Automatic annotation (TrEMBL):
Transmembrane segments: none annotated. This is Uncharacterized protein LOC111859658. Residues 317-381 form the HAT C-terminal dimerisation domain. Pfam families: Dimer_Tnp_hAT (PF05699). It comes from the Eukaryota. GO terms for molecular function: protein dimerization activity.
Length: 425
């Protein structure tokens, strides 16, 4: 049974049913268990921050149309094998890699990365094929008109660079053992990289190199003269790029930090304590955990904090990171010396800041139970899901040993294609 007396934190994807102020799950849990921390998944926060450029109040109009058009192009070809075959023929004609278009999804913004990369690689073939399809398809006429817009190539370059900047943060925010202090560090790094992108010529250089390359857009100079107009860059920079990067940075500031009360535990960092010469450093911060977490004994915190503040200067602690020193506090030896601080450290260490692991479990069922496996019995489906969730990585699995065990359990009628195979004989 779940030990409800030890509940310290609750993480969710940020849906209204979870974080609603009146009847959300988090609010009801806080009413039942005072002092409970509610945290919104940082991976979802980042996704919301970057997807607001499509539907938010400060959305950039051109990029809203851009995102919608990229999705429409994917479904236009996905819905017809004839169109897909025609696009492949164009890719061969232009001597481009024969790759399929990918579709983006606003609810999972990272999925747009591959869609942007693919479209940039096959854009000449795409323009030529849309021109061909436009003779009979009204939808193709609109798509062809948009991709020939002068802003389309620099928009592709901008979105590709933004994806490259944000991709690392998406991966970090989905790590299983993500610690709350890492979130603030990664957000700071991301904002700095976006500021650098805005102030530098990275987008312009990539766009110009693409225009001037024989393997890029240079062969389209006669067919799409709008790409090569003199005023393209300044107009795109002022009306699209700068407003988008400014709004994106402000969205990130609005969404983060979402660790709430957890940020108070930064006061445990040896680096911060040693850099502050005040003898009262941390006293005010220690009152916050005592007020928010009833299980922390308020009268014991000041004395334990004073002792810990002096102890941090020792050689074995002063070089430790915040996470390392919190792990030291929850050790058996430290728990005897600092029982209340040890409990506070345990709360900080166990608080979840992402729900990606939970969502992976939901996705595992969809991955395992494909249309070809729709007749799987419940018992077999359960085993397959356990292997998919808790099993070893594909690279670490010994397939030969699995085959040996499969054939040794009982005599099989199945035979492999290798003659005189020692496993299936």
């Amino acid at each position: 049974m779940l030990p409800t007396d030890k509940l310290a934190s609750f993480a969710s994807d940020g849906a209204a049913v979870m974080i609603g102020r009146k009847a959300g799950v988090g609010k009801r849990l806080q009413d039942s268990f005072p002092g409970l921390i509610t945290v919104q998944c940082v991976a979802h926060c980042l996704n919301l921050a970057v997807s607001d450029y499509i539907k938010g109040q400060r959305a950039v109009h051109y990029l809203t149309k851009y995102a919608r058009t990229v999705g429409t192009i994917f479904w236009f070809y996905q819905a017809s094998s004839i169109r897909t075959s025609s696009l492949k023929d164009m890719e061969r004609l232009f001597e481009l890699p024969q790759i399929k278009l990918q579709g983006g999804n606003a609810s999972r913004w990272e999925s747009n990365k591959e869609a942007t990369d693919v479209m940039r690689r096959i854009l000449p073939a795409l323009i030529a094929d849309l021109s061909l399809q436009a003779r009979n398809e009204p939808t193709a006429q609109g798509l062809h008109s948009f991709v020939k817009d002068k802003f389309f190539p620099p928009a592709l370059c901008l979105m590709q660079l933004v994806h490259e900047k944000i991709h690392r943060q998406f991966l970090v925010f989905q790590k299983r053992n993500l610690f709350f202090s890492q979130v603030e560090q990664e957000v700071t790094v991301l904002k700095s990289s976006l500021a650098q992108l805005k102030e530098s010529n990275m987008v312009k250089d990539r766009w110009q190199a693409w225009l001037q390359s024989d393997a890029g857009l240079k062969p389209l100079q006669e067919e799409v003269p709008a790409y090569f107009q003199d005023d393209v860059w300044e107009s795109f920079k002022n009306t699209v790029m700068e407003p988008f990067l400014t709004a994106l940075t402000e969205n990130i500031d609005t969404r983060f930090p979402n660790t709430g009360s957890l940020s108070v535990f930064n006061v445990f960092s040896p680096r911060q304590i040693l850099s502050n010469s005040s003898t009262e450093y941390g006293d005010a911060e220690m009152r916050t955990p005592a007020e928010e977490f009833p299980r922390l004994r308020e009268f014991d915190l000041p004395s334990e904090w004073s002792s810990y503040r002096l102890r941090v200067g020792s050689p074995d602690l002063k070089t430790k990171s915040l996470e390392e020193v919190l792990l030291w506090l929850v050790s058996a030896e430290s728990a005897e010396l600092y029982p209340t601080l040890s409990l506070a450290a345990a709360i900080a260490l166990t608080a979840p800041v992402q729900t990606a692991d939970v969502e992976r479990l939901f996705s595992a069922l969809k991955i395992v139970k494909t249309p070809l496996r729709n007749r799987l019995k419940e018992r077999h489906l359960d085993f397959c899901c356990k292997v998919a969730i808790d099993g070893p990585d594909q690279e670490a699995l010994d397939y030969k040993e699995c085959m040996r065990r499969f054939y040794r359990i009982k005599k099989r009628r199945l035979k492999c294609y290798v003659s005189s195979c020692e496993m299936c004989e």
